[in-house]
Amino acid sequence: MSNIEPISSPIPYTRGNVEPLLHEVVHALDRLLEDDEATVIDLASLPFGPGELDQLEERLGIGELTAELNALGQSIIRETAYPGVWWLEHRNTEGDIVGRYIEITRAPEILMSQDADIGAGRAQLGDNLERAGPGNENGADNEPRPN
Amino acid sequence: MNLLEFARGPALQVAVYIFIIGSLWRLLGILWLQKKRDFSERRNGRKIRGALKVIWNRAFTAPVFREATKHARFMGYTLHIGLFVTVFLFIPHIVFFKGLIGIDWPGLPNNVIFFVGVITVGVGVAILIRRMTHPVLRLISNFDDYFSWLVTLLPVITGLIMPIRFGVRWETLLAIHILSVALLLIWIPFSKLSHAFLLIVSRGTTGAILERRGART
Amino acid sequence: MKDIPTLGDILQARGVSRRGFLKYCSATASLLALPPAMVPRLANALEQTRRPSVIWLSFQECTGCTESLTRSSSPTLEGLIFDTISLDYHHTLQAAAGEAAEAARHAAMEENNGNYLVLVDGSIPLGNPGFSTIAGMSNYDMLMETVEGAAAVVAIGSCAAFGGIPGANPNPTGAVSVRDLIKDKPVINVPGCPPIPMVITAVLAQYLTFGQLPELDRHGRPMAFFGQTIHDRCYRRPFYDQGKFAETFDDEGARKGWCLFKLGCKGPITYNACATMKWNDGTSFPIEAGHPCLGCSEPGFWDKGGFYNAVSTGDIGSGKALAGAAAAGVVLGATAAAMSRARRKKTMKEG
Predict the structure, then answer these.
(1) Nearest to B32 among C242, C317, C337 (CB)
(2) Which residues in chain C touch residue B109, judged by CB atoms under 8 angstroms apart?
(3) C252-257, long-range: CB < 8 A, 24+ apart
(4) Does A12 reside within a domain?
(5) For residue C260, pLDDT beyond 50
(6) Chains A and B touch, using 3 or more CB pairs below 8 Å
(7) Residue A4 domain flag
(8) Has this prediction a pTM greater than 0.90?
């Protein structure tokens, strides 16, 4: 199923969700600086009016760093114009949105290489090197694990 | 059938039937009473004019009594106006009436209605306290007075609780509200609340008689 | 019971990276309306979950619930869940037919006795078993036979949960809900016409993850998704409070997005997640699209007095009944007056 793009509301509409949310982000940034405590806000849990989510994204803006993750579909992990405030958008293999979050943290957990993956990758690299040892003319099979 | 369906369905219907039966019974039972034939010659004879004049004039206290009745007048007017506003100018009520009689009219914002409702209940409590503490009123008040007070204020109170909720489900509160209205409808014809439709009749009759005799109205 | 792989095993075998699994867990936590802080616990629980057997029974239904699920907002999630669950029987989705299909159902029931999940959509006719049969077996018999060894039953859609449209007045087939028939097994109702697909998935995910029933309301619906009314979460609520209502479907109020109460919106008495989770990936929901809520997740919503009659309209009886009451009142009044006159005459005579 392809993406459904909603028609944007002709009348600029606000249900009053954007401002309080931004205040929440400010408080979360305080906590991050003082206590090194990260916060995750699940945007799916809030009843946005039409166009409000776009307003929020606009207000937060785009920062220096954008990462594209390809695992079970594409995800965008983007630092907003406010350092420490990250906008995460997860899509599935069909391109539909499965999650939108705002993370107030130094780096979202999902950006980091995970122990299980590191372990599996290390094992595979070891295997590849063994196979590419003396006498093997075809070369190593360097394909990483598929997603 | 759950409570709400019962309240909006059978309960309300039965209440309306009893209201109609009771009101007509009382009204016609009074109107068709044998009137004493007045053998005197009539002075003016315009009965309708007399009726209307007295209905209008008696809505306002004669200057001589104004000071003595100021409390009752203030509380009475506030209560009745408050009841009118909360019943007839609240939009979900207007939708209800439109379903019945097909006529629509503009209403007031919900928070205004809520405010008026609170005032109404406040005045209602003041009225009750007055009735219970005033030396004369206390003596002459009977079951009809107190029960009518309760039955009139219950719909307003239950209506005010609906937006506040206190953790109770909205449908339950709506059902209780409708049941309180049903109780009111059943009680009106058989109590002093029947003044709602009998007042016009009694004042009109007085006015017609007085006018016929040429008395000042 | 044969060795059943855990979800963790399956994901690893499919080459899903840990990042992918975290993404999946975040989305699942979001679906289950769990706070993001619970994701690590969820990841842990999901990794240990064993792949359960699921039997889907379709009775008197329109297949809308299956359509909703397979067109769902997060197919990858569905794909994962349905890959990780073993969907051993489903009329629309299975390849087998006839005896082979029924044999698959019986095999699944035997192998997983006591542990499989039964999903039901559609109501069950009790009027005449011939109204709806599968492989010559009546719906009632198939339900009772299949549920006997089940761990739990999930009634998907308003038909299975409450009787739905077959059960609406005059209910010609004698349709009943799953809960009307199954009393000795846990039954979760996921009503809606259809239910929000994310909700169906989330309920399944929750049961599979935590192995226990979510908190249910008095209609057996999970409180996480059916705990609040549409009215309480509706973005048009400020207009209701300000008394701004649309009077018709294309008037100025409608264009400005005012409250649809007067047009028959059943939001105040409907419990569902439409106003928050919305439909089609959170795109919109009926009220946002300009149509009043039908109340489709409530019992008997087809017979609640009309989709376009406001919630506050009442029924005070037919014109005939009212005329009858008026006539009775007139008679009583006349009688009272007559009695009074007779008494008066008597008094006058005596006096």
Answers:
(1) C337
(2) 241-243
(3) C254/C290, C256/A11, C257/A9, C257/A11, C257/A13, C257/C290
(4) no
(5) yes
(6) no
(7) no
(8) no
Burial A48-73 (b: 16+ CB within 10 A, else e): bbbbbbebbbeebeebeeeeebebbb
Within the 286-325 window of chain C, which residues sit less than 8 Å (CB to CB) from chain A?
Answer: 288
Q: Is C340 on the interface with A (CB under 8 A)?
A: no
Scan for tokens 């997060």, then name that residue. C74
Residue C75: predicted pLDDT: 43
Whether residue C18 lies within 8 A of chain A, CB to CB, comes out as yes
Mutate to test the interface with B, among C241, C263, C301, C315 (most CBs of B within 10 A): C315
Query: Which tokens hold the place of A37?
Result: 């405590």
CB pair distance less than 8 Å for C312 and B109: no
Q: Domain B3-19+45-213 belongs to what topology? A: Fumarate Reductase Cytochrome B subunit (1.20.950)
From chain B, the residues in CB contact with C217 under 8 A are none
- How far, rounded to the nearest angstrom, does the alpha carbon of residue B43 sit from its chain's CA centroid? 35
- Candidates C248, C316, C331: best to mutate against B (most CBs of B within 10 A) is C316
ipTM: 0.74
Q: What residue type is B131 in one-letter code?
A: R
Task: Determine the CATH number of domain C228-328.
Answer: 4.10.480.10
Whether residue A146 is found in the same domain as residue A106: no
Residue C39 has a pLDDT of: 82
3-state secondary structure of C260: coil
State which residues form the domain around A123.
113-147
**Residue-level pLDDT at A1:** 40
The reply to whether A99 and A123 lie within a common domain is: no
Helix ranges (DSSP H) in chain A:
18-35, 52-60, 115-131
Count of structural domains, chain A: 2
Residue the block writes with tokens 């309300």: B12
β-strand partners of C203: none
* B164/C contact by beta carbon, under 8 A: no
Whether residues C280 and A4 touch (CB distance < 8 A) is answered with yes
Strands A97-104 and A85-91: antiparallel
Are B110 and C243 a contacting pair at CB < 8 A?
A: yes
Q: Residue C213 has what pLDDT?
A: 78
CATH number of the domain at C51-226, please? 3.40.50.700
pLDDT the model gives residue B95:
87
Which residue matches tokens 């004669």? B62
Evaluate whether chains A and C are touching (3 or more beta carbon pairs less than 8 Å apart): yes
Query: Scanning the structure block, which residue is given the tokens 């028939």?
Result: C181
